Amino acid sequence: MMKITVVGCGYVGLVTAAGLATSGFYVTGVDRDREKIDKLRRKKIPFYEKGLAELVHNNLKAKRLYFTSSLGLGMRNAEIVFIAVGTPTGADGSADLSQVETVAKEIAGYIRDYTVIVNKSTVPIGTGQRVKEIIRHNLISPRDFDVVSNPEFLREGSAVHDFMFPDRIVIGTESPKALEIMETIYSRFIEQNVPLIRTNLETAEMVKYASNAFLATKISFINEIADLCEAVKADLPTVAKGMGLDKRIGPDFLSAGPGYGGSCFPKDTKALIHIAREHGKKLSIVEATEKVNERTKKRMSEKIIRVLGNPAEKTIAIFGLAFKANTDDMRESPAIPIIWDLLDAGAQIRVHDPRALQEGKKIFGKNILYFDNEYETVTGADALVILTEWRSYLDLDFKLLKKKMNKAILIDLRNLFSPEKVKEHGFIYEGIGKR
After folding, report:
1. Domain range holding 395?
2. 435 found inside a domain
3. Which of 69, 162, 289, 387 could make an S-S bridge to 217, C-beta 3.0–4.6 Å?
4. Measured in Å, how far apart are the chain's first and last C-alpha atoms?
5. How far apart are CA 349 and CA 383, in angstroms?
6. Residue 53 domain-assigned (yes or no)
7. What is the mean pLDDT of the chain?
8. H or E, element range at 352
9. Is 270 in a helix, a strand, or coil?
10. What CA–CA distance (Å, rounded) separates 81 from 104?
11. Is the domain of 73 the same as that of 156?
12. Nearest 5°: phi and psi at 90?
């Protein structure tokens, strides 16, 4: 059975490693963070991702999945090496490729027989060729290898599902031999008629960036429409439904909210803008998308203050810290600037999140109060603000909420509830783009 190494055990790397092991391959996950590796060996997942713990546990038990902090051990007899390390935003907006380049250099020292090096990290166009040059330059002696671009399309919160049921697979390589091996890896999906795009390195890299930029644009677009709906007294949910029924548009990513966040959209839109500028091009729509997203977050802070009045010395309960539901990830979460704005205005903040409280403590420290129970969170609050669309919030007991709160004000920045339902319980309700 083919042996695979995945370098980087973050969201993408760990899901990829566990998913490939489920397909029957022997997979070794490598990460230089020894504490993370120790946790994984003890079957402890270092972050929350729905269904991932079970997937990792099952493959460890079946002895198809291993973890090590040693790249040398991890690459022993490996035929394929996936690079799945971070590419954070640099000071100029570009993707920081230092981790990718370091791994490529280190990999070169361990290549013995023919090896396929797969870029799974989201990287700028041209990185595949750069990785090829780095490996070739650092080989101890002439070795045969190929570099492949195989972008991931995993959504945080549903990454396991997305790996097991992909809507497409993109393989970028100029090597027929590498392509054949990659098709073997994904044979179970190809047999299920999952669309397979075979292309070159640069096109595969562009597919990933273009996809994320388009989805981010869709979010910013609907948030601007929501703002206009409020001005003209139109109902945004109905507008979005009417738009989404057009098959050319579709309903996904047409839910208004406090702006996009996470590890992908903010980083990838900035990187794509930077790539375009380097080539003398201007991506006006993507640049506008980024500006609208920042403006949306500020508009949400202003909405809260407008509904509540002067927040000085008032208590605001916040439901949701993660940038989206089903994850504990707070990277670029809209909750961060909104809460800081409210704190700067003098408000006292009490927060609840099913998964992200520990991450919240790293960011806000003792500036806010943290609660595991929703009803303790709202005790004495002058308003409740919903920032993350956790489905558990749909089961809230409004009678108990009102009893616990100082004032019955609900500011629903995810449009989870119908105004009629909330107002029936005596609440003042404010959503996004609703009449």
Report:
1. 296-430
2. no
3. 289
4. 60
5. 10
6. yes
7. 97
8. strand 348-352
9. helix
10. 10
11. yes
12. -80, 175
Residue 169 and residue 25 in one domain? yes
- The pLDDT score that the predictor gives to residue 318 is 98
Residue 56 tokens, joined: 């990792």
Bridge partners (DSSP) of residue 147 are 117
In a domain, 246, yes or no: yes
Q: Encode pLDDT of 64-82 as tens digits.
A: 999 999 999 999 999 999 9
Tell which residue, 283, 236, 8, has the closest CA to residue 119: 8
Q: Which of 152, 176, 199 is the last residue of a domain?
A: 199
Block residue for tokens 């609208």: 292
For strands 3-7 and 80-83, give the pairing.
parallel
DSSP state of 21: H
372-385 b/e with 16+ CB inside 10 Å = b? eebbebbeebbbbb
Specify burial of residue 77 (Cβ count, 10 A radius: 0-12, 13-18, 19+): exposed
Sequence-ordered list of residues with C-beta below 8 angstroms from that of 63, at least 6 positions apart, any chain: none
Phi first, then psi: what are they for 341, rounded to 5°?
-60, -45
Cα separations (Å) of 383 from 175, 309, 410, 431? 60, 10, 6, 13
Query: Can you tell me whether residue 25 is helix, strand or coil?
Result: coil
Please enumerate in sequence order all residues whose Cβ is within 8 A of that of 300, keeping only pairs 6 or more positions apart, or say none.
258, 259, 334, 338, 413
Place of tokens 């991890």: 74
Alpha-carbon radius of gyration of the chain: 24
- For position 205, what pLDDT does the model report? 98
What's the CA gap between 404 and 379, in Å, rounded?
A: 5
Instruction: State how far the Cα of 215 lies from the Cα of 167, in Å rounded to an integer.
Output: 15
The string of pLDDT tens digits covering residues 361-386 is: 999 999 999 999 999 999 999 999 99
Q: Name which of 169, 171, 172 is nearest 201 in CA terms.
A: 172
pTM of this prediction?
0.95
Spatial strand order of the sheet with 428-430 comes to: 369-371, 348-352, 315-319, 383-386, 409-412, 428-430
Is residue 264 annotated as part of the catalytic site, yes or no? yes
